[in-house]
Amino acid sequence: MRKAAVFTRDRSEEIVRQVEAGRTAANADVADRAVRSLRDAAESGTLEHSTEVANTLALLGLLDDSRAVLTAALQRDPTDVTALAILATVESASGRHGAAIALFDRALALAPDFPGLAERRERCRIEADVLDRAAHDLETYATDHRLDARDAEDNLIAVDARSLDGDRRPRFRMQLPAGRIRHDLGIALLFSRETAAIGYEMGLRRFLDAHLESDDVFIDVGAHWGIHALTAATRRRGEITVIAVEPHPANLEHLRRWIADNDLGRDIEVVPAAIGAATGTTFLMANSSMGYRVALCGTEVPITTLDALLADRDWLRWRRIVLKIDVEGHELAVFEGARRLLESCDVAAIVWEKGESYGSAAEDPRLRKIFQDLDARGFRHFCFRDEHQGGELIPLVELGRTCNVYSLRPGFLKQPRYD
User: Fold this and answer.
1) Distance between CA atoms of 42 and 16, rounded to whole angstroms?
2) Which residues face 217 on adjacent strands?
3) Measured distance CA(24)–CA(315) in Å, rounded
4) For 204, which DSSP code?
5) 124-140 core/surface letters (b: 16 or more CB in 10 A; e: else)
6) What is the tens place of the pLDDT at every residue in 295-314?
7) pLDDT per position as a tens digit, 223-239
8) Virtual CA dihedral for 71, 357, 222, 291, nearest 10 degrees?
9) Quick one: which of 191, 67, 221 has its CA closest to 130?
């Protein structure tokens, strides 16, 4: 047997920092060495710090590697609560919610006060409920509309958007694969909200409807399949320019299909790249189709900056811009690559996701830096109590909550309500 690999917590934290920074041309060799060292440690058999290795492998998206390390650790010690907790998280990320909940319950029975464990179990339960609800909604919707509900990627379900025109008709239509509705958390939520509720993220969509004016530009960073890009482009057809930025090839396929199906090719420009602080290539790691984030390994894609987009599109300097950023914890890098855009362009509003990766402002230096930079430019920050419902935009004072942040420049006149 190999000698036990020593993999310290400091080494794990170093690689986590590299994960957060993402892979670029400058750190590609470091990234490759980090992945190799993790796999070498995982293959060594007995590990002195197996949970640190497993947790870092999971953060890199190497879930099978992480599962193997954790399974071996639990064979040695079935009461290792940390290993149980990480394995439960790995199973949840793999879509195995039943197995994950059973592991969470084993860990909680051993350590009821283990930090964050009950919250992670509850999040896993909610995700399972979302998928179950979507499967039920799909069966109901298919029956009502006489559609085929078979579980297949090539079985496309047509869904009319909840965004309506002046005659109360849907402004665009979306094609959703039945297989993704049942198994992809983001698509499941979108489908259920559009077919069995008032709509997906209607707060943001109503905000766009209320404030986008003729000759405005809407830049959608992390456009996914295009629900917000299509909302903006159909607010005033032919009068608003939309730049939809999406890096992942699978998402791009759906995005381009939605644009073509709704005859919006002249209104929406697709930029097939990630956005960050530098140009080059990077990798994307997946949680769901809406959960790709920049990482050290995964699917290789080009990465550019908003300032580079500006340099190639000088006309942006003379147009009012509304910016949306949804990049799964990589928001600071996007802002760092947008300094010229923010300094020289008329950026009226920035809607950006403050997701679960941040925690609270007091704990996360990335989040503090974003707020400090935007505060220095005079932006004020708001949120909805419920993003799907809309309603009143209230000042963002509870910095630990997960939400879309609406950062509005001085003089921006928000509406009393967005209903």
Assistant:
1) 16
2) 241, 321
3) 29
4) H
5) beebbebbeebbebbee
6) 666 778 899 999 999 999 99
7) 999 999 999 999 999 99
8) 30
9) 191
| Residue 243, φ and ψ in degrees, nearest 5 | -115, 110
Q: What are phi and psi of 406, to 5 degrees?
A: -105, 100
- Whether 252 and 270 have beta carbons less than 8 Å apart is answered as yes
| Residue type at position 26 | A
Query: Helix (H, G, I), strand (E, B), or coil: what is residue 396?
Result: coil
Domains with residue ranges and CATH for the chain = 9-115 (1.25.40.10), 123-198 (no CATH), 201-408 (3.40.50.150)
Interacting residues of 168 by C-beta distance below 8 A, sequence separation 6+: none
**Using an 8 Å Cβ cutoff, are 375 and 350 in contact?**
no
Residue from 333, 321, 323, 407 nearest 369 by CA: 333
Looking at 40-44, 137-141, 212-216, 281-285, which range is the least confident one? Answer: 40-44
Q: Residues 361-409: pLDDT tens digits?
A: 557 788 889 999 999 999 999 999 999 999 999 999 876 678 899 999 9
Give residue for tokens 């530098």.
278
DSSP tag of 247: -
415-174-184 Cα angle (round to 5): 95
Q: Which two tokens stand for residue 71?
A: 């399974």
- The most distant pair of C-alpha atoms in the chain lies apart, rounded to whole Å, by 73
Strands (DSSP E) found in 247-368: 268-271, 274-275, 280-285, 293-295, 299-304, 320-325, 346-354
Nearest to 216 by CA among 316, 83, 78: 316
Measured CA to CA in angstroms, residue 146 lies from 4, 139, 157, 173, 185 at distances of 60, 10, 11, 17, 24
- What's at 274, amino acid-wise? A
E strand or H helix at 112, and its extent? none
* Partners of residue 391 on adjacent β-strands: 418
pTM over 0.90: no
Q: How many CB atoms lie within 10 A of CB 363?
A: 11
HSE at residue 220, side-chain half, CA atoms within 13 A, is 25
Question: In whole angstroms, what is the distance from residue 67 CA to residue 73 CA?
Answer: 10
> Would you state the structure tokens that stand for residue 92, as one six-digit string?
């949840």
Distance, in Å, from the CA atom of 145 to the CA atom of 313, rounded to the nearest integer, reads 44
For 155, the token pair is: 């079985």
Give the C-alpha separation, 383 to 401, whole Å. 10
Backbone angles phi, psi at 309, to 5 degrees: -60, -40
CA–CA separation, 351 and 231 (whole Å): 15
CA distance 404 to 401: 10
